[in-house]
Specification:
With about 280 residues, this protein is an alpha/beta fold. It has helices spanning about 45-50, 100-110, 185-190, 205-210, 220-230, 245-260; strands at about 1-5, 30, 40, 60-65, 90-95, 125-130, 135-140, 140-145, 155-160, 165-170, 195-200, 230-235, 265, 275. About 20% of the residues lie in helices and about 25% in strands. α5 (about 220-230) packs parallel to α6. It starts with a strand and ends with a strand. Bound molecules: zinc ion (2 copies).
Length: about 280
């Protein structure tokens, strides 16, 4: 199984020479495994680059585990070039919001005057599946979805394939009082996983000002990785104000904290490919 990072930034796309190494595109990660259709986590602006790398000699078929419907996780959809081909199909799994299905919410978002083209008028098809606390299969991938604390209905996902595993918790609210505890559903997703991709948006000072904005401190991500016994922790959903040098320093300090427990810590950057071996 290979995990590729196409967009790693939280909240809003950004661009500046000072963030060139980690990148400014928002959340999009792909998982590839032999014989399987591509599996995506989220559809942020990084999706455009994943789309540009897809083969053009056949219609795209793939699946997305979408955490939630905030802009930074959706904005790549209208620029996903494979949907411009007849016969292409993207299946999207996501939590509904109240009485509105994921399909209703998407069609309401991608329509004039918010976007010039209706989603339904694209040549390719986007199909939607509502999920919550569920277990299901996508091809050979075994998927566990759990509703996790954020702002509004939000899922985290664990994907297992041939004895290898990856968990994606891009937007995860840690306890607002700054303590370290985890909801049972989120812990289910993380326990013993090979790779945990986790919200690492804030320093302690930032969290103190934004404690109910739906995110976690880097220290919390490390605590969760160590508590859950993960093999590799990937710091993800970097705050737009964190430049490359700051992410270098934060991830080095997180790696030093986790070293005694044997957890490897890396910071997600655009273009990073992680192989997950058995
Ligand atoms: Zn986000
Ligand atoms: Zn969010």
């Amino acid at each position: 199984m290979a995990i590729t990072f196409h967009g790693v930034r939280g909240s809003t796309p950004c661009d500046d020479p000072s963030i060139a190494r980690y990148g400014g595109n928002t959340s999009c990660v792909s998982v590839a495994a032999p014989g399987e259709e591509p599996l995506l986590f989220d559809l942020g602006t990084g999706l455009r680059y994943f789309g540009a790398a897809q083969p053009v000699d056949r219609a795209f078929r793939g699946n997305c585990l979408l955490t939630h419907l905030h802009w930074d996780h959706l904005q790549g959809v209208p620029f996903f070039a494979p949907l411009l081909c007849e016969g292409a199909r993207l299946d999207v799994y996501a939590p509904p919001h109240g009485d509105e299905t994921v399909a209703d919410l998407f069609h309401r978002t991608f329509t004039p005057p918010l976007f010039p083209v209706e989603l339904a008028s694209l040549p390719g098809e986007v199909a939607f599946h509502d999920v919550g606390d569920d277990e299901f299969r996508i091809g050979g991938f075994q998927v566990t979805s759990r509703l996790v604390p954020h702002v509004g209905p939000t899922c985290g996902y664990r994907v297992e394939w041939a004895g290898r595993s990856v968990t994606y918790l891009s937007d995860h609210q840690q306890p607002r009082d700054g303590s370290f505890a985890v909801a049972p559903g989120a812990l289910d997703l993380c326990e013993g996983v090979d790779v945990l991709i986790h919200d690492a948006q804030y320093t302690p000072a930032e969290f103190a000002r934004k404690r109910d904005w739906g995110h976690s401190m880097i220290e919390y991500a490390v605590w969760l990785g160590v508590t859950a016994g993960v093999r590799t922790l990937v710091l993800f959903h970097h705050d737009p104000s964190h430049d490359d040098d700051m992410i270098d320093a934060l991830s080095a300090s997180a790696a030093a904290c986790a070293r005694h427990s044997g957890v490897e810590v890396v910071a997600a950057r655009e273009g990073l490919v992680l192989g997950v071996e058995g």
